[in-house]
Amino acid sequence: MLSANLSAVFYLISGVLFILALRGLSSPETSRQGNFFGILGMIIAVTVTFLSIGNFSTGLIVVLIFLLIGGLIGAFIAYKIPMTAMPELVAGFHSLVGLAAVFVAIAAFLNPEAFNLGSPGNIKLGSLIEMSIGAAVGAITFSGSIIAFLKLQGIMSGSPITFKGQHPLNALILISIIIITYLLCSTQSSNLFWILLAISFLIGFLLIIPIGGADMPVVISMLNSYSGWAAAGIGFTLENTALIITGALVGSSGAILSYIMCKGMNRSFFNVILGGFGATEQSASAQNKEQKPVKSGNADDAAFLMKNASSVIIVPGYGMAVAQAQHALREMVDTLKKNDIKVSYAIHPVAGRMPGHMNVLLAEANVPYDEVFELEEINNDFANADVAFVIGANDVTNPVAKTDPQSPIYGMPVLDVEKCKSVLFVKRSLSPGYAGIDNDLFYKENTLMLFADAKKMTEDITKNL
Amino acid sequence: MEIDPFIFRLSIFILSIFIGYYVVWSVTPSLHTPLMSVTNAISSVIIVGAIIAGLAGNSDTIFNTSSIFGFLAISLAAINIFGGFLVTQRMLAMYKKKKKDK
User: pLDDT tens, A281-340?
Assistant: First the structure.
């Protein structure tokens, strides 16, 4: 059996290894080593926990069986999941962290002796507060992530669900969570504990339903952050350094990602959380722009334009993920490169449904990461490029964000696609994007619309090159 | 007067938030998806709490309510640990540099 001090030192080591795991992600070369540090940290934490309890009764076998079941399921999912489904997977994983936090809090509440927290009905006040926070945040993470998962998976409609009195209701529930936590701590009543869990589940659900599909990058990052705070709350309860460090890391990581995503859309965090983006403006702008002339072309025209170009910039968006067009796209680019055409990729921060979504898809299609650029790195290059190939992106290319202060997306950083000599825009129809506004780019002189499925069009272009 | 151990834990917590802040800002945007999946995996270190709960009973009371919640939490966290690290590994293996000989 390990002494408490020695195991605390090991937990600290695994906390440090987790820091190194995140540090490794600063560049793709060091990232694999970082992931290894993370795995090592986890092995240390789990091993130390077993050794410090030192209870090798039949319970151990049950624990190992459950560990094995979970591990096999996890490994199976990790190998089977297609890269396009990463946002759903991450949302699903967040819900599991949340639920695990809730279960640990319940276990600690029912059997505080095992955790050295006092006896049932007489739990140390500090521990009870920490436990309640961990359980409430965990429950919010769980139900919120389930909604996010259903929306991403398409089981639930991606459009915002709003109703009258939504915000006052949410505020009321949040206040009652605080009151119940207070009462719980003064009375130690187990009924209050269950009520606290129930309304926390409810508020997680209510907080996410009004948020629309394309705001999912913010939601996923936010839930990532919540799962961290839930872990930290439980870490305080268990007096476990590894858990406290990890919770803080994950919490701030999610918060930073939410901030980056909000900035990418030029919206405040509260604006996203309160939901219903574009719902009011939609009807007004959709009507009066239908008659404008649009130039449309076919794969032949697109191939001709690209063959005569010396540099091409590709702008991928969520539509590329939906059409699974990333492999076809890379084949097209390979053909272009054989003709000595310079090709690079421009990624908007909120392209796709989660931070870095496009980068993973391009990496899957064997696109070298040094050909892929972020908005700030590449935006000046559009003016010198011959062709911009927009595939599955829409709002992030809309010049209205720079010119029309009335527009709901005014001020959002956009890719300066219109500065290219010519723009090829692959899209299935002229329908507006997520923000519900028309894209001025469709009607520009130098834009050629390619109305087709992204994958099919890309394949056709390759044939014509 | 002695300092409450809570204060020490709080110090660790606050300092870790700052470490997290600086470390995460240095993560390259193209690796934000692996960042999310690896944070998922490491936050499942909550499994230590689940193991404590699961092992708390003696041989007569392996399955009491508390330990059952512990067992369930072990499985949930294990899905995340294995799933999270392996999928991160899978993603990171795909990030390749341009071949020079092209």
Answer: 444 444 444 567 788 888 888 888 888 888 999 999 888 888 888 999 999 999 999 888
C-alpha distance from A240 to closest chain B C-alpha (Å): 9
**A residues 162-181 lying closer than 8 A (beta carbon) to B:** none
Residues with Cβ within 8 Å of A400's Cβ and at least 6 positions away in sequence, in order, are: A407, A409, A410, A437, A438, A439, A440
What's residue A297's pLDDT? 83
Confidence of residue B85 (pLDDT cuts 50, 70, 90): very high
The answer to whether A212 and A158 have CB atoms below 8 angstroms apart is yes
Q: Is A259 in contact with A269 (CB distance < 8 Å)?
A: yes
**Does residue A40 sit at the B interface (CB-CB below 8 Å)?**
no
Residue of higher predicted confidence among A117 and B89: B89
Q: Is A344 within 8 Å of A314 (Cβ atoms)? A: yes
What number of C-beta contacts closer than 8 Å exist between A and B?
389
**Is the CB of B49 less than 8 angstroms away from the CB of A238?**
yes
Segments in B1-102 forming alpha helices (H) = 5-25, 32-43, 47-54, 65-92
Please report the residues numbered 388 through 447 in chain A whose beta carbons come closer than 8 angstroms to any beta carbon of chain B: none
pLDDT in tens, B3-51: 888 899 999 999 999 999 999 999 998 899 999 999 999 999 999 999 9
Provide the mean pLDDT of chain B: 88
A395 is catalytic: yes
Residue with tokens 């009151």: A179
3-state secondary structure chain A: CCCHHHHHHHHHHHHHHHHHHHHHHHCHHHHHHHHHHHHHHHHHHHHHHHHHHCCCCHHHHHHHHHHHHHHHHHHHHHHHCCHHHHHHHHHHHHHHHHHHHHHHHHHHHHCHHHHCCEECCEECHHHHHHHHHHHHHHHHHHHHHHHHHHHHHCCCCCCCCCCCCHHHHHHHHHHHHHHHHHHHHHHCCHHHHHHHHHHHHHHHHHHHCCCCHHHHHHHHHHHHHHHHHHHHHHHHHHCCHHHHHHHHHHHHHHHHHHHHHHHHCCCCHHHHHHCCCCCCCHHHHHHCCCCCCCCECCHHHHHHHHHCCCEEEEEECHHHHHHCCHHHHHHHHHHHHHCCCEEEEEECCCCCCCCCHHHHHHHHCCCCHHHEEEHHHHHHHHHHCCEEEEECCCHHHCCHHHHCCCCCCCCCCCCCHHHCCEEEEEECCCCCCCCCCCCHHHHCCCEEEEECCHHHHHHHHHHHC
pTM: 0.89
